[in-house]
Amino acid sequence: MARFSANLGFLWKDLSLPDAIRQARKAAFDAVECHWPYGAAPDEVYQALTETGLAMLSLNTRPGDPAKKDFGLCAVPGREVEAQEAIREAVSYARFIRTPFIHVMAGQAEGEAAHRCFLENLDYAADQAEKDGIQLLIEPINQREIPGYFLRSTEQAAQIIEDLGRPSIRLMFDCYHVQIIEGDLSHRLETLLPLIGHVQIAAVPDRGEPDRGEVNYGHIVRLLDDLGYRGAIGAEYRPRGAIEDGLGWLFDLRGA
Prior knowledge:
Distance between the termini: 8 Å
Domain Xylose isomerase-like TIM barrel: 21-251
Active site: 139, 236
Protein name: TIM barrel protein
GO biological process, one term: glyoxylate metabolic process
Strand order of the largest sheet: 2-1-8-7-6-5-4-3
Structural class: alpha/beta
Number of strands: 8
GO molecular function: hydroxypyruvate isomerase activity
Shape: globular
Number of domains: 1
Radius of gyration: 17 Å
CATH class: Alpha Beta
């Protein structure tokens, strides 16, 4: 049976992170994940995780300076000091709350200098994270939502993982982004599964609950099971209405 993780960057974001964890448990999710937990005391987050029996599967490095509309720093030349501070902060937080994955956000950049910068910062991040058995995720993000984002395809991400040769660096396969960028989800999952650390879902094109739109998630869930994927599937969607009113998909896909 498939397991599903509530992404608390989009779900119950009006609540404190500890209370959002408790709400995810009440809604019958199997795990949780988040974007940027840094405003919440890690001991309170860990207490909520322990109380509910849920694991926090992933968190992101900080996006950067809100005034500059940053969406990550690790591929941005000239921002290496900030990027590595964000990496150390994420590793420390993940270590405390026992989170197995950190999404290392590349940011908006392009060209050979950005490529070298990203590889250097990923190598640095792997040195920090591997001490605690933490794995790193890199994620292609569609240009429609984040113009200029450095990671623009699964092929580019796979090449970076191969070039670095660090087993701790894995692919975040967000079906929503991949469908918009390049489509062909079934073939890409089959081909890339050895590199995939985590899978996320949302409806395409509206990024709502994964119960409609152009992707048949019943098929995707069954395919992942057939391929031997045993991780949780992250529900990173923006609710169309009240969260609890839209959870029918969870029970449908869990039985798929």
